[in-house]
Queue: 2 jobs
Job 1
Amino acid sequence: MTEMNGSIRSDIHQPIRDRWSPTVFADRPVEAEKIATLFEAARWAASSFNEQPWRFIVGVRGEDETFEDLVTCLAEGNALWARHAAFLVLTMAKTTYDLTGEVNRHAWHDVGLATGNLSIQAAAAGLAVHPMGGFSPERARELFVIPEEWEPVAMLAAGYEDEPENAPEGVTARLKSERSRHPLAELVFTGRWGESRPLT
Amino acid sequence: MTEMNGSIRSDIHQPIRDRWSPTVFADRPVEAEKIATLFEAARWAASSFNEQPWRFIVGVRGEDETFEDLVTCLAEGNALWARHAAFLVLTMAKTTYDLTGEVNRHAWHDVGLATGNLSIQAAAAGLAVHPMGGFSPERARELFVIPEEWEPVAMLAAGYEDEPENAPEGVTARLKSERSRHPLAELVFTGRWGESRPLT
């Protein structure tokens, strides 16, 4: 592996360039209309056999008890900053097909596609979405009475982001400039595994 | 379940509205530069612990043998139309973390996030990407010598789309107008599973 690097090509679609996962959110509610557009974007993602194996539980800070319930599902390290987000989401995947009952091996993948749409819609609307794997699926299942055939997948903290210097006490601000990724030559192959495909 | 419906809100970000999975592609190559931007977009997706558990094998029609190799991995029904795409992609997920060797339960989900970025970048560039679950992971593993800890996830057919009336012989043209999804009231909950959250 070579070093990871932090520069994104300038010709990438703007909301994809803008999207990142901050830990500092503004103390500002998000318009209900905007929240709705995020799920509308998710709804139109692709899925295997158009199964749409995604569901979402949403809690809005200061507006419902679901938000506080969702906070209690988070790993401690995430709860520290994510409890300041404007809203929290739990994503869930149905791992069998409605029609046949057979295993849907693309369920989690397709929840990823829907969450991708949601995140890009958010970026286009000036919002940030920080996906988290660190939470208790068991607690979520119990609290929200999630049926057996559905699996809790991820949680999302969302809202308007704020400057790192406005981080609440106890919150470590991530910096966008610190983002890094593997270079394309390590990711995109041709011929066989590991043979870099030249990309211009 | 109520009826699925086919209208998408008009205030959704344009490339998300435009994205769909056609079966008719134009007989026109895609600029190498544009192909590169799709993977650059994928590279910047979010992932659990920034693991970036995604790799891609790419074949370009008329340009390399990888394209023909990828066609042979497809289910017959997909090969019929997908062999006319400008390029094909195999996506792969690493199901254990590099650092700890522990299971990464978000690997497939995160490949979905990367593929979501790729698909929106494509739509913004006037291209279409049709993800497919119907292919042989075993054949792909053997042909491309994919290491054990990586799993073939999905295949993507991509290119400029063409009008349904230009479908090659034997190809059934999907119509964009026939797309449908479950209504939001069935997808977004609050309080507990199944309790629709009102969204405006």
Job 2
Amino acid sequence: MTGIDILNGGFVRLDDHMADDLSVVNSARVSFGKKTDHLTDADRGLINFLMREHHGTPFEHNSFRFHVKVPIFVAREWFRHRAGWSYNEYSGRYSEMPEHYYIPDFGNVRTQVGKPGSYTFEPIPIAEAMDVSETIDMINGHAFRTYNYLLAKGVAKELARTILPVGAYTEFYATCNARSLMHFVALRNDTNAQYEIRVAAEAVENIFGTIMPVTHAAFIENGRVAP
Amino acid sequence: MTGIDILNGGFVRLDDHMADDLSVVNSARVSFGKKTDHLTDADRGLINFLMREHHGTPFEHNSFRFHVKVPIFVAREWFRHRAGWSYNEYSGRYSEMPEHYYIPDFGNVRTQVGKPGSYTFEPIPIAEAMDVSETIDMINGHAFRTYNYLLAKGVAKELARTILPVGAYTEFYATCNARSLMHFVALRNDTNAQYEIRVAAEAVENIFGTIMPVTHAAFIENGRVAP
Amino acid sequence: MTGIDILNGGFVRLDDHMADDLSVVNSARVSFGKKTDHLTDADRGLINFLMREHHGTPFEHNSFRFHVKVPIFVAREWFRHRAGWSYNEYSGRYSEMPEHYYIPDFGNVRTQVGKPGSYTFEPIPIAEAMDVSETIDMINGHAFRTYNYLLAKGVAKELARTILPVGAYTEFYATCNARSLMHFVALRNDTNAQYEIRVAAEAVENIFGTIMPVTHAAFIENGRVAP
Amino acid sequence: MTGIDILNGGFVRLDDHMADDLSVVNSARVSFGKKTDHLTDADRGLINFLMREHHGTPFEHNSFRFHVKVPIFVAREWFRHRAGWSYNEYSGRYSEMPEHYYIPDFGNVRTQVGKPGSYTFEPIPIAEAMDVSETIDMINGHAFRTYNYLLAKGVAKELARTILPVGAYTEFYATCNARSLMHFVALRNDTNAQYEIRVAAEAVENIFGTIMPVTHAAFIENGRVAP
């Protein structure tokens, strides 16, 4: 499977997986000492039952390894997911940070309306949005030029990087199972999530839905609440 | 891969996996923004370095799903491993427990010598050992017959099972990654571990060594300490 | 706080804690850079909001250490809770198991009605129930006598214990936070849970409700779904 | 306990704790069905034995809640510790980021010598170091002024913050137990760790040593390897 491009130069790519709907059924059926090799209608019902009743463990016996490139502020939110997630990230201590930072498309330059707990977002008029995008581009470009200046002076990478913006892109491997994936997607592919992590979570969910379609359908049918 | 038979009717069977030595290298190398598709000598050195320096996360981007049948007292010790392990077990609440319990071979009937912290075990003379095995067989058989008597009287399975011995066999799926697998193996395939879990851990380690031979060799070379 | 007696000789005892409702509020408010030293009506609203919106992390900055004595089959279900739980248990490898096993009160001898997924339980007529309790007492007593016989012959404790029933009592320390506690209580103090773990979970919930009453009220108000 | 000031305006402050050396001993002794109320020489030996033999669970029945203020790049490394750690962080989505960023003292402006895996760091000559500090101050100040400009134009906080440097300060609550604390300290209060997280980890270790002195001494005696 090729990757899904997001956020102007970022991506979510499935690197490998060991996952299908059948693994849920067989893990659950070990309770009854049974195993099956193809999915029946009764199995579909079982998956839906497990989801609805919050029986989460049968959804853990599978694995998705993603290779992801997103801005640091997106990675920061992603890495808050601890249970059932493993991470390895590009290191600004060991390697030079390439000049790549997030500039929102005009349509995604937004203002915040309402109060904490019930914020909504509205686009900013196009002329203003253009100025905002340019300002973001300019200040981030300035930060990277200063970073390169510090490196040229011999400053250690680990120290020079401290001036880089959280909008700079980072890369990582993230490995999870269907249960931890659904917890991530329930929170992050949601109207309350920041747009930039939402598109990443949407890509994760699309890949998940392709590989475990029955489980994904049950997730949606039960209100997108992870089991 | 077929299963490994252990403990007179138990087994450890690899049900599926997403694992190879290359996944360790690529997960680690994302720190440097590099990826490779075959293992070089430098990669072998890297795996050894990661193991020695306790850089554990690159060993988490893989997955092993085992189907296991062992006595309950072995499962009890196994399930104490929480981090990086997922379990689904046969349920004595929902299903009848088949009459199957652990009887040690004569050679494994043992006595305990020494003090806490430094116990050793010695075989019991053969005549005694035969009596012990027969006694174990008899009392466990008695427990199962009583269990069946209670079921026949209509007692709920969840209540009737409370008289079954911890030597009764159970079945479960256990999914882990190489890091959590090595933690398990370091503690349980060890002279301080009880013989019965040790043979199970040895089977797990043999399967692991076949699938990730370079990682396994580095684990041994670094004193069998999990990273 | 003294312990709560359950299951004829078992108990749930709070050994120590670092927990109050205020810790939830202050952990959440760090998002806004604020701290408070007493609970206001707005704080109560915040706790309810966090529970409803499944913002779970503010409920993790506290700790409950329990000392528990229950039958092994109850401990087995309890120990399936991995995230946010720590355990240390009495060891039948190192120490002799005292003769103490679970005998259900007559009123709790039950039969199972219905199908998997929708079982209900009904009491068994009293005369039958007496016979069942006596049978359970007899076979378990027999197991313990045989256990003592094996120990007297010099059989290692770790091997002799394999014949003891899962109804034998064990002891452990269990440490958790309010979030992991609520996950336990949501599943185990529930009509679908086995009666014997339900009374243990009820004791845990009673202690929790005394120490974090506002959080507990919000848990109930939001349908007993852990955040 | 008051906080420990670090990194020019950051701090590590113990907010609350439920921890002492006795909790380790009593958790371990439940294996033998014993409990004690003061620490004996035998208990000190037991703690050392548990540390040496990697018996980690007795070190989990306690809790430390820290309130921490450090630059984002330090928080990023800290939050990689998942097992046994809970976090709540100041949110740049909900609240304005105050103008506060990390400027290294002249003595900590450093260059990197050697190769990956064996880097060492050396101070940069004072005149150069002054220029570096000033450059860092200038570019970060510029980023914060631009941030305020964007906010003034009505840009959403969550978007405006993307230009802020990873050297900007953040605040969080972090709750852990002695075992997870030792894993953090073993990796982060170490010569291989970046200076800025090292001083934070040193503060954590000092607080830990005050509260659990016998456990801390055993940690040091056994080569600073977490159990």
